[in-house]
Amino acid sequence: MADAVFEGEKMYSLKSTADFDSAHFLKGYNGKCSNIHGHRWVIEAEISGAALQQDGEKRGMLIDFSDLKKAVKQLADRYDHTLIIEQNSLKENTLNALKEENFKITEVPFRPTAENFAKYFFDCLKQSVPVSCVTVYETPQNAASYKEENEKFLTYEKIHTFRDLHNLFIKILGTTYEKRDPVLAEKFSQVPYLNSSLFELSRSEIDFIKVYALDADSGEKLPFCKNTVFKNEQKKGISFTPIEYLLNFLDRYDFVGDGSDKALVVNAAVLGKVFEKINGYKD
């Protein structure tokens, strides 16, 4: 479902950089880089999001710049003035001799190229900040970047129950990055914070019933109506549970399409109006 990856949305972007000086070599490389040589490496981390925080001391911010700066600097400091070595790329006696001379050695489980560092630093940073892209400069003219494809998160692979759906809407989309549960934050690592009352519990949900109460009947299969979009599934005798039906139904429609398939294109703004009506908003 295209709408579930926020493609084409207007986004804010933050960037922070930190540098470190270190040496490395590329074992098995046929060229000058097979010898120990140094760089002033630069890590550039980028964070993107569709909504700014609207209250508290971080009002008007995507995240606190100091949080991003701190995370990038701590990562750079870890490698500053070290000799970076791929694990098992030196003879044990050679490695021990270097350590005995009190050289600062950092062993990494990959070949220390800019490309591998970009992914490695991305994985490190996403544990503390919602990073969207990391670029690593070996020199001011040469850099490698790593980012992950837009994550499709409104799918049955991610959402198996109505409690999962509740967690996505309330505890991810409706919760700022630093307040998210670590387990959910890892599962939905690329999902942005959307500052909207659509992702807050309504009074009736708080007082009476929440959407995950539907899980009590989630094992039942739903019949298809006569004019269903699931015609192929209907012919094959396939049926869906309520949560499967909901997610597959939404996936049949294009919310950001160019209109080439008019039968299945729905303007995203229309979907927003539907949600507003469901939640009782007035124009």
Structure notes:
- This protein is an alpha/beta fold.
- The protein has nine helices and six strands; from the N terminus they run ββαβαβαββαααααα.
- The two termini are 27 Å apart.
- Mean pLDDT is 82; it is low at 1-8.
- The protein has a six-stranded mixed β-sheet with strand order 4-3-1-2-5-6.
Uncertain stretches: 1-8
Number of strands: 6
* Protein structure class: alpha/beta
| Strand line-up of the largest beta sheet | 4-3-1-2-5-6
The geometry reads as elongated
The level of helicity is 25-40%
Average residue pLDDT: 82
Rounded to an integer, what's the Rg over CA atoms?
Answer: 25 Å
Rounded to the nearest angstrom, the distance between the terminal CA atoms is 27 Å
Largest β-sheet summary: 6 strands, mixed
- Tally of separate helices: 9
- Provide the β-strand percentage band: 15-25%
List SSEs in N-to-C order.
EEHEHEHEEHHHHHH
Characteristic terms for this protein:
alpha/beta; 6-stranded mixed beta sheet; single chain; 9 helices; 283 residues
